[in-house]
Design goal:
The chain is an alpha/beta fold and 526 residues long. It is built from 25 helices and 8 strands. It has an 8-stranded mixed beta sheet with strand order 3-4-2-1-5-6-8-7. Strand 7 and strand 8 form a beta hairpin. The model has no long low-confidence stretch (mean pLDDT 84).
Length: 526
């Protein structure tokens, strides 16, 4: 199974890294790093001077990455001076703004390059697929300055929380549906990280960025798009990751996928590769068919988008923090069951409801069927006070079991509430002592059609009665009630458990079933 198919099969939202190669794929004039520097160099110097400076720095033993940073540092000084000397006009910035420190002339130049990108023709379908993949990302990390990712979310009328630089790093969050622009954004030009000075200033922040991202990397697969893995920030992150990764080679490679552009290749070719100096293994995905990658990841479906999960997660956290500071958490947090005992299997097989509200109103009022299923449930999952509140609200004419809770009523601490419930339950107790099981049996006999009696008498257990064909269902239930003393109690209970599990709520609400449950309880609770 390919890396991308494996992501879809496991149905995990991936963490997606977006590099400059993606912008270059979809825009005619999107520059790579050296092209950007050459463009900026040409604004204040002869083009040939760039290569002279590059060669001089290279001769001093600097890497290409270090050279680009040093040249950007030179350009910042030269472009700023040219702007202030009015030798260079820069769009979208006035000299007063630059003087006040609100905007950097050099970085405004950088922003202008990426603000003027021209989209390639015949790429709309692939861009839409790209957008549909992005909304399925657990979160997105990019070193790009442009707004293409945000525009993709807008294309689908979806929102994304954007964190520029170190913003958002100190907020408690699970990072669902967020975008981290770790090298800055053209919407905040002073945040753009491009010079040697910028990178040095970012070094202190980088450890925080890495910790924030790494805390999530073990929980989700990672997909790199538009990267050659030479960016020092990304390499620093991957270095930290490889040093702490708890997986063997195969599993590590199955968690990190790097899409490598291979012109004209329509198949998607996977091969396990490595970065030797980082000691890291990953899956290299070679293709020109990016749309297929996007469409496959887009098929991940967890019921909510990461951005929607983030909305609820943020709200829950805010409620907990505010109420916790006021020492009022007990008024907003409540659990129908012991959530500390909830297993992964429980989460798979049960519908779980998380609720916030005043503890007096937190629970949904149970229906009769909710109540009766809980009554026959030996686990006692329904809180005692909820069950007793439901009972208290029932009419005295209602046939409803209650002894199970009468015996537990002293578990309530508040005397006023306990007395209220005892008053209602003792009235019921008196009612059934006077009428008793005999009354149920006699009334039920009148409900059984005589034309069925001969057939009904051939059955020896409640289940055999119920399985008889050609007889109205209500006659079978009333026959069981009228002969309830003659059947084995264990067989009656098995039959009741069976119908509680299989019958619809509408059926269980019928009078004959209500009478059956009450008759059985009178039989065993006598």
């Amino acid at each position: 199974m390919s890396f991308i198919e494996n992501i879809k099969e496991k149905n995990q939202f991936p963490i997606i890294f977006i590099g400059s190669g993606i912008t270059q794929r979809y825009f005619e004039n999107a520059p790579h790093w050296e092209e950007l520097l050459l463009t900026l160099w040409g604004k204040v110097h002869e083009r040939e001077g760039y290569f002279e400076e590059f060669h001089k720095l290279q001769s001093s033993g600097l890497s290409n990455f270090e050279i680009y940073l040093r040249i950007a540092q030179i350009l910042e000084k030269d472009i700023d001076n040219a702007f202030y000397e009015r030798k260079l006009k820069i769009e979208n910035i006035e000299i007063e703004q630059a003087h006040s420190g609100l905007l950097s002339p050099f970085k405004q130049c950088v922003a202008n390059v990426f603000s003027g990108l021209i989209k390639k023709e015949k790429m709309d379908d692939e861009i839409k697929s790209f957008a549909q993949m992005l909304v399925k990302a657990r979160f997105i990390v990019t070193t790009n300055y442009d707004n293409f990712i945000e525009e993709c979310f807008n294309l689908l009328n979806k929102s994304v929380k954007v964190n520029v630089g170190n913003k958002g790093l100190f907020i408690k969050t699970n990072d669902y549906g967020e975008l981290y622009k770790i090298h800055g954004s053209i919407k905040d030009i002073n945040s753009i990280c491009i010079t040697e000075k910028d990178y040095k200033q970012n070094e202190s922040k980088l450890a925080i960025v890495n910790a924030k991202i790494l805390s999530n990397l073990t929980e989700a697969p990672i997909l790199f798009l538009g990267y050659s893995l030479t960016d020092e920030n990304i390499r620093s992150l991957l270095s930290d990751y490889s040093e702490n990764i708890p997986y063997d080679l195969q599993e590590a490679a199955a968690r990190i996928g790097v899409v490598e552009y291979k012109k004209g290749e329509q198949s998607i070719q996977d091969v396990v590769s490595s970065i030797p100096d980082l000691g890291m293994h990953y899956t290299k995905i070679s293709t020109d068919n990016y749309k297929e990658i996007y469409d496959t990841v887009s098929k991940i479906e967890q019921g909510y988008l990461p951005s929607e999960i983030a909305k609820y997660e943020g709200l829950f956290r805010k409620i907990i923090e505010v109420k916790g500071q006021e020492n009022q958490l007990q008024s907003v947090l409540a659990s129908f069951v012991d959530i500390s005992q909830t297993t992964s299997e429980d989460l798979k097989n049960k519908n779980i409801v998380v609720a916030f509200g005043d503890d007096k109103y937190i629970y949904k009022i149970p229906s009769y069927v909710d109540y009766i299923k809980e009554y026959f449930n030996s686990k006692n999952e329904m809180p005692l006070e909820i069950a007793l509140t439901f009972l208290t609200n029932q009419s005295m004419r209602t046939d409803i079991p209650f002894n199970k809770y009468l015996s537990r009523i002293n578990d309530l601490i508040e005397n006023a509430k306990r007395d209220k419930y005892i008053h209602k339950l003792t009235k019921w107790e008196k009612k059934y002592k006077e009428s008793g099981l005999d009354n149920f049996i006699e009334i039920s006999k009148t409900k059984v059609s005589k034309m069925y009696l001969q057939s009904l008498k051939t059955a020896h257990s409640p289940q055999e009665v119920y399985d008889l064909t050609g007889i109205k269902e209500y006659s079978k239930i009333y026959y069981i009630i009228s002969n309830i003393r003659d059947f084995d109690e264990t067989e009656i209970r098995t039959f009741i458990n069976n119908i509680l599990e299989k019958k619809s709520d509408n059926s269980l609400n019928k009078t004959e079933y209500r009478k059956l449950f009450m008759a059985y309880c009178l039989l065993i609770e006598r």
